[in-house]
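Duplicate of #3305? Posting structure anyway:
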């Protein structure tokens, strides 16, 4: 997980016991998170394996072919971490070369920065060779004044935004996205951030949902029926809009972030997924690593405040993983991809090494006894699907 040399340096800085003694697992995890090192993939890697795919689109609703994609939040300088255009382009090339063919971005990520950076790769590829999704709900306008609320972005592009879930706003947002990326079409369009968790909205999210019900939803349905896009749905961090939209419309796919991970999955398993299964609607799992926490970062679900129950569960699963010769990140990625309701997972990345480690994690042969032990210890739900 971390080299002996780095352990000595970090251990001395943190005051973690004697730097000459063998580090405990808890000490290693603490140092991993504090040092910002990329969590190494552990376990037997099948070098001949390819990334998992969905077998065709026989159902009514579109599913991306690739079951592992790439989320674009980090490419927008998410989490207030600055990356250069060159670093992100190298990461994108590494993703493409590793077999990733599903890319998700948003106008909101870095206030257009992520879309522009994704375009640096994708505009030079055959448009039929990959699935591309972006989002609607915010329109960007140029401004020399920085936003009062900085959100997660470091050095974002010089834009402000306003919420617009109308039909005309939806069309304009898609056209703006196509210009920024430099491509002719989107495959999937998500209505973005209609959630009580969105601190811009709070209880006003009902008002915005009503606007989307009259504007974005029928407009995207029309665009799908006309063949302009292949699918639409919601990209949200809480499931309330899922439940409301099923009563009034026929969405194809939902991007559910922070709702299905190895640490937190009960509501998705017991309520959300069963509702979607009845309609043959699939889920793209966003933030399968809980915003980086399961890859060793000191943040959980986009926040530096990490709930104690999550710390406890993280340590317990890590201990089981270590005894079975794997790492928690590998287990988390394969766990999130396992359900039949899930059509893809889209972990983010900002570096070539992160891409390589995530891709290798999908090729590790995890022993069945690992999953059995997690269920026996109530660390994951007993009904949770696990990799086969």
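Output from current build:
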């Amino acid at each position: 997980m971390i080299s002996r040399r780095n352990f000595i340096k970090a251990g001395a800085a943190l005051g973690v016991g004697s730097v000459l003694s063998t580090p405990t697992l808890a000490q290693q995890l603490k140092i991993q998170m504090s040092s910002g090192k990329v969590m190494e993939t552990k376990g037997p890697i099948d070098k001949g394996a390819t990334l998992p795919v969905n077998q065709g689109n026989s159902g009514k609703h579109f599913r991306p072919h690739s079951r592992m994609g790439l989320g674009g939040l980090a490419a927008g300088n998410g989490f207030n971490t600055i990356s250069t255009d060159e670093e992100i382009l190298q990461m994108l090339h590494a993703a493409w070369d590793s077999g990733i063919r599903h890319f998700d971005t948003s106008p909101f990520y870095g206030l257009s920065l992520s879309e522009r950076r994704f375009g640096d790769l994708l505009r030079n590829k055959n448009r039929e060779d990959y699935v591309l999704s972006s989002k609607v709900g915010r329109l960007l306008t140029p401004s020399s004044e920085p936003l009062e609320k900085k959100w997660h972005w470091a050095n974002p592009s010089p834009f402000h935004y306003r919420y617009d879930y109308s039909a005309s706003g939806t069309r304009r947002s898609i056209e703006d996205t196509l210009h920024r990326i430099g491509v002719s079409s989107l495959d999937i369009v998500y209505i973005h951030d209609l959630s009580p968790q969105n601190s811009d909205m709070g209880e006003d999210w009902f008002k915005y949902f009503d606007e989307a019900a009259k504007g974005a939803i029928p407009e995207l349905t029309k665009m799908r029926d006309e063949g302009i896009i292949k699918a639409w749905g919601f990209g949200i961090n809480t499931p309330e809009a899922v439940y409301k939209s099923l009563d009034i419309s026929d969405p194809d796919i939902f991007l559910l972030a922070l709702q299905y991970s190895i640490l937190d999955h009960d509501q998705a398993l017991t309520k959300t997924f069963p509702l979607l299964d009845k309609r043959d609607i699939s889920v793209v799992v966003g933030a399968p690593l809980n915003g980086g926490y399961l890859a060793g970062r000191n943040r959980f679900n986009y926040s530096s405040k990490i709930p104690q129950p999550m710390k406890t569960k993280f340590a317990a699963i890590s201990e089981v993983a270590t005894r079975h010769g794997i790492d928690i990140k590998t287990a988390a990625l394969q766990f999130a991809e396992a359900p039949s309701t899930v059509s893809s997972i889209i972990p983010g990345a900002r570096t070539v090494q992160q891409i390589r480690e995530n891709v290798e994690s999908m090729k590790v042969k995890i022993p069945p006894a690992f999953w059995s032990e997690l269920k026996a210890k109530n660390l994951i739900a007993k009904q949770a699907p696990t990799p086969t």
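Confirmed duplicate; merging threads. The chain has one domain: 38-376. Residues 308-323 form the longest helix (16 residues).
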